[in-house]
Fold this protein.
Amino acid sequence: MVALSNVQFGKSNEDVRTVQRALLSLGYRLQAGATGYFGPETKAAYAAYQLSLGYSGTSADGNPGMKSLTTLAQKSGFQLEQKSSQSVAQSSVGSLRIEDVSYNDPGDDTGEAAMKAYALRACQLTGMDPSYGVPALVTITSRESAHNHPKYRVNTNDSNAYGPIMSDGHPQNCSRGATQCIPRTFARYHQESTATTPYDVVADMCATINYVRDRYHVNRSGSNFSSLVQQADPQRKPKGY
């Protein structure tokens, strides 16, 4: 039984292989065959399939949605796990208790190149298309922390700087990390299997992705990330998010 949450860009599993076989059976080209990896070639084939159904714009971006995947299942004869879009979107969010957030700084790398690498990993973990997610996240880190510069990893000057002093020597509610998450936001939108400290860049970026999906209705692929979140758009003035 195929689950929508498993058939997302960057994932490797048998559900992806089933969808690839279905696309091949309908005549869509996958030069590498049914590899089980959802990469650019599968995305392009799925986009062509979406176009054949009459979708356009961001609805034909190659990222499966429940409606198009249901139609594919009906055409190809595989079973599809039925979940609401909300449960699918939240399936990999492993919320923490605020008490479980840690404040150790692992000393992750700084600079734009490092942020691109961390953002790519965050996109893979959350199922966001890197072509949208990476530039958006890198723009945010540029504006929020000068690409994770040690001097700007914690903000002790804004309105969030209150609460008991934590193990890093700063008030609990201070914004922290490359994208400047406050601990409660980081806890609520924490990505399952990532670090429990917002100073970890990948964990911080994953929480940011989950947050903007919920707060700003950024879609799963991230194709509307920079249009909905001004702080992620290098063509517009910085604006807190």
Residues 98-232 form one domain. The two ends are 38 Å apart (CA to CA). Residues 84-91 have pLDDT under 50 and may be disordered.
